[in-house]
Design a protein that fits this description.
This protein is α/β, with parallel strands linked by helices. The protein has 17 helices and 13 strands. The longest helix has 18 residues.
């Protein structure tokens, strides 16, 4: 008998216990383990569900978002009935439904510079299920400073990648990506789309690595970046090495505290700033665009999304040029009048405005938040995606 596992748990996890690489001692390790899951979305859903089913004793869930209907195509920890609920609460209910012996700790306010190290410090390892650069750098540096392994992954369209950072003298995230890309250069999954099953494949790989680290069994992905192409159904890997000059984990690190990552990634430093301070000099709000269109029915509004996106929703009467064609077709845009450019969320349209400015379009503006914010603030009859 085990002093750590109940009779019910011994019965529940017997398929684990009969594995020589796990055994009773390994299952007890899982029960005593504390794993922090950053994000409860596409990656965080399979990560947390499988770690719960595997018998991990404590799982921390970090997410400040609420469930949206557009999440349900891939975020399997949530159901239609959960729309509008905080994701951490929805995920918690699913995890405890799978394993009632689980202890779930909710971090529904998200992580920030002022709390990330305190949160990370309370766990044995961290699994990153986020989709943005500020959080990735924040989590990486906190893990390096606190000496915690970090299981990383990212997904986009039909491809994914995964590795283990900061484990057994292996590299950290900054060894692979020393600095973030310029704002708007890399589209998010919300902008570029993602195959619904893709985060399931990659998230399960992350959960597998977490279990292996807890058990101290097998070869982890530390020092190896696993690349997956769903369309070709092909895996390949790239060797990673720790960078001696890395500012986080190198021989002479220069990072001794987490930084204000939102600023160098081009995002506002806080969520409580006034809207006017958050808007760029070339941005207009949906309400401002609505007023402009009412004052000038011939206002040139340019949609730079792809044709398949236009089939889902569009603002009536706008001109349509996909971002990839702007360089060849910019002459179709009038230079002597106001122009407002929009996309789904504002990233691609900002790039289009920057290009137009370089061609002398001094009156080009960007719709902040894109058509999704237009739907929220002006016309909720349109469909979101």
């Amino acid at each position: 008998m085990s002093e750590i596992l109940s009779a019910q748990e011994l019965a529940r996890f017997n398929r684990h216990i009969i594995l020589p690489q796990v055994g009773l001692a390994g299952q007890e390790k899982l029960k005593q383990a504390r794993v922090l899951c950053i994000g409860t979305g596409g990656l965080g859903s399979p990560i947390s569900l499988y770690l719960s089913a595997a018998g991990v004793g404590t799982i921390g869930l970090v997410d400040f978002d609420v469930v949206d209907e557009s999440n349900l195509q891939r975020q399997i920890a949530h159901a239609t009935s959960d729309v509008g609920r905080p994701k951490v609460e929805s995920a918690r209910d699913k995890l405890i439904g799978i394993n009632p012996h689980l202890n779930v700790v909710l971090h529904g306010d998200g992580i920030r510079r002022d709390n990330v190290r305190d949160i990370v410090r309370d766990y044995d390892l961290v699994v990153d299920g986020t989709d943005n650069f500020p959080t990735r750098y924040l989590v990486n540096d906190a893990c390096v400073l606190e000496g915690k392994p970090l299981i990383y992954a990212s997904i986009f369209q039909f491809e994914g990648q995964a590795t283990v950072f900061n484990h057994k003298d292996g590299p950290c995230y900054r060894c692979l990506y020393p600095e973030p890309p310029p704002p708007g250069l890399v589209p998010s999954c919300a902008e570029g789309g993602v195959l619904g099953v893709l985060p399931g494949v990659i998230g399960v790989i992350q959960a597998t690595e977490a279990i292996k680290i807890i058990l101290d069994e097998g070869d982890t992905l530390a020092g190896r970046l696993l690349l997956y192409d769903a369309m070709q159904m092909r895996f390949r890997e790239v060797r990673l090495r720790r960078d001696p000059a890395c500012p986080a984990c190198g021989e002479h690190p220069s990072i001794h505290e987490v930084l204000e990552y939102e600023q160098f990634c081009g995002l506002p430093p806080t969520e409580i700033q006034e809207e006017e301070e958050m808007l760029g000099k070339d941005d207009v709000t949906p309400e401002q665009l609505k007023d402009m269109m009412e004052a000038n029915p011939n206002l040139f509004v340019l949609d730079v999304r792809e044709p398949f996106e236009l089939e889902i929703c569009r603002i009536a009467g706008v001109w349509e040029i996909p971002l990839g064609q702007i360089a060849a077709r910019f002459a179709e845009v009038p230079k002597d009048q106001d122009v407002v450019v929009h996309c789904k969320m504002g990233g691609r349209s900002a790039q289009a405005v920057e290009f137009l400015k370089s061609k002398g379009y001094t009156r080009a503006k960007n719709l902040a938040g894109g058509i999704l914010r237009w739907i929220d603030d002006v016309d909720d009859s349109l469909s979101k995606y």
